[in-house]
Structure formats: structure tokens, C-alpha cells
Amino acid sequence: MSTAVTATVSAVCATVAVVITIAVIRRCRRWRWKVYKKFMAKITDEINRRNRELEACAAVNDVVIEIGPVEKFLHEILNEKPMRFSSEQLASCTGKYSTELGSGGFGVVYKGELPNGLPVAVKVLKVSMNKKVQEGFMAEIGTIGRTYHVHLVRLYGFCFDPDTKALVYEYLENGSLEKYLYRDGEGAGDGERKERLEWRTLHSIAIGTAKGIRYLHEEFQQRIVHYDIKPANILLTADFTPKVADFGLARLGERENPHMSSLTGGGRGTPGYAAPELWMALPTTEKCDVYSFGMVLFEILGRRRNYDAQLEDESREWFPKWVWDKYEQGDMECIVSAAAGIGEADREKAETMCKVALWCVQFQPSARPTMSSVVRMLEGEMAIVPPVNPFHYVSGGGSSSSWALSSSTGTGTFTSSSRDTGWDSKVSAASTPGKPTDAMVKSVESTDPVTT
Ligand SMILES: Nc1ncnc2c1ncn2[C@@H]1O[C@H](COP(=O)(O)OP(=O)(O)OP(=O)(O)O)[C@@H](O)[C@H]1O
Ligand SMILES: [Mg+2]
Description:
alpha+beta; Phosphorylase Kinase, domain 1; Transferase(Phosphotransferase), domain 1; six-stranded mixed sheet; 16 helices; elongated; binds adenosine-5'-triphosphate; binds magnesium ion
């Protein structure tokens, strides 16, 4: 009997144990499923969150830039980085690139208008963009975009779409100085012959330009060398205030102009304005801008291109050398009367401009003044030492055309003498930034007597 009871109890216990085990196993399964579901929900949430972030970024790119009233817009860009435009936005604000303002080594410039009515000039770049250049582009935009000076063209924004790389600048109503400078209207497009500018206007354009370059060299937090100072890169507002354009572009990449690239190694500079060290692949400093500015001063003085092969009088073919020859002979009168339109009251200013130009184009960079000295000399605040011959390094008898031709083809040859090294080293040793003229006075007076 007891055996039967024991067997029954054992059976019941076994059954209960089995039932409990089954229940526990089911619980465990359910719990595992719950944990799995929770884990999956977390992953799904994370994926959804990332997707939402990506969508938000895409949406930001697609947002049409809201541009407020002009004042607000200008205030914003003065305090912030330049704006990014899409290629569609640029196409729309330029009326599908319908009005061309001009073209140069870096691309074509079109007129445009932002939605708030602000006129702009859009330069569509055709520079070759490898990865290094692309990185440089972004860095450069940051730099150029932060420069603000009354004599520098303002960069409003840029486009960096795969199919369009462009820079959006403030629009300058009177275009470039090139269109006004030369007597025959050369430099102006068809039907664009411009009024003649008065000498005084040209003089203040020269000073304003010098101030713009001075800011780039000496006042901006990071020194910027322009590398391509020339009348085409001096733009004029409606009241003929000059603004330097295209600074910083030299570092954006090679121009699509094989002649330029081979000439100046890296596509920098323009023949006739580029300093010798640029096209001779020597080390360069900001003084190459001083040289180019000197060449612009000669063109302002003569209201002509510095090199003009059409002239019958061969000695006048290359204006800077002709000016030096006359200056050396003490014939300042001849130089000033050649510069048409200079009245009696402005003769002194013209003579000053002539001397500053001769200093700026010295062959040795260290002998050229800094831009702050250039400004002070042009404004009559600093006495000017009689310039020394900028062209005695040229071999081949110094004919007026040989140097001009060599400087525009990059094939010049130079002579160097102990005398040259003497006065140049004295100038460079004695010069201190911002005050080179005193140093020049001493060194030049003691070593290089020239006729004034
Ligand atoms: N911000 C601007 N406002 C008005 N006109 C402009 C502006 N920028 C350029 N232009 C016009 O477009 C022309 C071409 O300019 P661009 O800078 O492309 O060529 P460049 O100055 O002749 O040569 P480079 O490539 O060496 O600068 C200028 O001469 C000027 O007439
Ligand atoms: Mg330009």
C-alpha cells in the first residue's frame, strides 16, 4: 500500500517538476524575446535618429537663402563668414548668366542681383581643382571673406557645387581702371569707350589703391600678397573710389592660361606688371606687389600702356625706361608735359608720383619701399630721396624695349656688379619696416649720386 502511495506521490512530484520546468523555460523564452525586442527597438531608434539628422542636413542645403534688407545683409556678412550659394541660386540671380562683365585668367565675370536687390559680380572659376586646391579654396574663402577695407572689393559669398565653383563679389559700377586709363580707350570692350578721368581723380585712385594694398600687407591679421596688381584689378565705384580686386586668388590654383603659368611659375602675375623675381622663379615677398604698383603708377602718369611697340620714337616704346632716362637727365619738365592733362597745381604731385614709381620698380625687392611708405610719399607726408636707376641690372645696353620684352616673356638677363650689391645691401640693412625712406636717404646719398 505504502509503495503504491509513494509511487503516486513521486509521479505527482515529477509531473509538478516537469510543469514548473516547462513554465520556467517559457518564462525564460518570453524574457529573452522581450530583451531582444528592447535591443532591436534601441537600434531602430538610433538608425531613425541618424536618418533624421541626415535629412535635416540635406534640408539645410536645400533651403533657399533668406536674404534680408541690404543693410541687414551687409551687417550679417561683416560679422559672419561669406555665404554659400548653390549653383541654382547663382543661375537665378545672374539671369542664367546673361550679362557678362568681362573675363580673365580665372574665369568669366557676370552681373547679378541678390533677392534683396543688392547688385553682385559673380566670377565663375575655371581653375583646375585638384584635392589640394579644393582645400585651399575653402581656406582662402575664409581669409578673403574676413577682409574688410574701403579700398578692397568685398567678397559676399561663394559657390562650391560639384559643377560650379564661383565667387560672389560686391558689384563696382564703374568697372576696372583699365577701361579709363589709356588714351585710346584700349581695355574697354566694344562700345565701352569711357570718359577721360581728370588727373586729380587718377591721383586719388593711386593713393586709394596703395592704401588697399597696404592693408593686405601690413594691417590684416595675416599678410596677403596679391601677386597680380594691375589696372584690370583696380575696380571703381560710382564715385571713382578705387577698390583692389582678386587678392588671394593667386593661391586658389593655376590659371587656365598656359602662357601665364609657364611665365610666372604657378600662374602668378601678368606680364608687364609681374616683378622679376616672380618670373625668374626667385623667392617672392610682398615686395612683388610694390613693383607691380610702381608699373601701374607709370601707366597713370603716362596714361598709356607701359610698353607700346606702335610708337615711332623707339626710346619711348617702354615708358618706365624713358621716364628714368629723362629723370636722370634732369628733364622732369619733359616727363610731366608728356603726362597729358596735368595742370600747374598738380605738377608737384606728378613729380612725386614719378619718383615713387621709380623706387617701386627697383630690381632688388629690398630696395623697394613698403606700401605704408608709398602711401606717405604719395600723400606728401614723407620726403622722397632721389631714386636710383631701377634698370641698370638689365644687360644688353639697356635699350628701352629689351627690358620690356624680357619682362613680358620671362627671358631677361641681368648683370650684377659690386656697386649694385653695395647700395642694395645698405638699403636692406638699414631699412626698418614702415620707415625705409630714412634708410634710403642715407644709403643712396652716400653711394649713388643721381641728378635730381
Ligand atoms: N566686382 C566687380 N564689379 C564690376 N565689374 C567687375 C567686377 N569684377 C570684375 N569685373 C569686370 O570683369 C572684368 C574681368 O575681371 P577678371 O578679374 O576676371 O579679369 P582680369 O582682372 O582682367 O584678369 P585677372 O584674371 O588677372 O584678374 C574686369 O576687368 C571688370 O571689368
Ligand atoms: Mg581681375
